[in-house]
């Protein structure tokens, strides 16, 4: 099967995976279903050669960029101590603990640097897989923000550590804790800085291009899509972390005014395009993981036949033991952070973990599932390293067990928990809408007075101004009373929305009938139909 056909097949499989889980009598998380579908494809002879470097460049930057765009910088800064504690300190602890453990358990032919490399790729967690397992809103917002922030940052810390470990393992570098630490922080801070600076520069260039192209949405969306790849490649060329550059680029986009100043059509199309791309790319990652599993297990059995130093059943036991150590280390560190005294770091606020119950600690522990980054990292280990097939098998086993354990254990731990209560957010929305309406009324009253003065000189009918102004201002006044007349005001807004949507539907039907009767040209039909779509999206509140 040629590459083009395989790509089309994978897109189809990803699209149908969401349908399949709805049809099954038991609920299976989407990532696991996509892995299973990938295994089925492999059973039918579909195989895609996995190039780790290409995988990292093609899939990881846009996915991390999209996650960065959804991350609140304010919340990230608020939780920065917790995130650093998990994404940096815990990664170092995990690499040291698991690295020495694997060195002790695996045959003596495997170097310590190689086991450190495996421990490094086992460190990053996968928030995408976690969301697919527990669903939206099951984990409290504050806890999920820390878990997602950790997943954004520890991808970089794990992979940077992997590069150092591989360089030492193949003899390109000599281990020196001071030099490695300095290089680590230079690579990390350099990646963050490049992402921020490049995005600000990119935003200004994009504004110039938009003026030249008269704000063509297609051009703007394509250029925005290229941003994470450009940030990643530039950072890597500067020997910095491309992953952190993609993350910081995503977090900077919303503050650069790139999309805020874009036309409505561009913003709507951009949101839809990114939603589609992230769904497809996430699906690709897990389907490709599923396709690789049979070949990984087959290679393990084949190579183990000529390797007398260890048996397959021993590798399986090592997988189980290492997973237990990973979870134990994670729980112990979370428990330690819970009982830490108030840290200086510019604030006396205790760490968020202080308020965690034992159940919360267990939820955060098993929420650290491993995913695509772990697989890509372990497959990037050079073939020349002794015992590579053992490292790949262990990493693959950890990925599967972490996903399965999360599927079984997290629903039990979350049993009885209430889906996130949105009442506080709703009250905030009502309050802000009321303040916005008050400001809008002041501006409209000024505009109405100016129009009345202008039309008085031109002898234009002023009743139209009074009529339109009263209708618009009256609608806004209802919002200013939301605090006292919340239910009545909401009913009025909902009724108005329903009526407008019915009117839009009738207009669309009339437009379609005129097209059928050849009473309107194709160009005019497309133009008016697009206007109705945008208006409907605005009215329905989906914009």
Would you give an account of this structure?
Helices cover 77% and strands 0% of the residues. The chain is mostly helical and 543 residues long. Helix 13 (264-305) packs across helix 17.
Could you write a compact summary of the structure shown?
With 543 residues, the protein is mainly alpha-helical. It has helices at 3-23, 30-43, 52-58, 60-70, 73-78, 80-105, 112-121, 127-134, 141-169, 177-212, 217-237, 242-256, 264-305, 312-338, 358-366, 372-379, 388-413, 423-458, 463-480, 486-516, 522-540.
On the 0 to 100 scale, the average pLDDT is 82
Number of helices: 21
Q: How many angstroms does the end-to-end distance come to?
A: 41 Å
Number-wise, the strands total 0
Which features would summarize this protein structure in a list?
543 residues, mainly alpha, 21 helices, 77% helix, 0% strand
What layout of secondary structure does this protein have?
Blueprint: H1 3-23, H2 30-43, H3 52-58, H4 60-70, H5 73-78, H6 80-105, H7 112-121, H8 127-134, H9 141-169, H10 177-212, H11 217-237, H12 242-256, H13 264-305, H14 312-338, H15 358-366, H16 372-379, H17 388-413, H18 423-458, H19 463-480, H20 486-516, H21 522-540
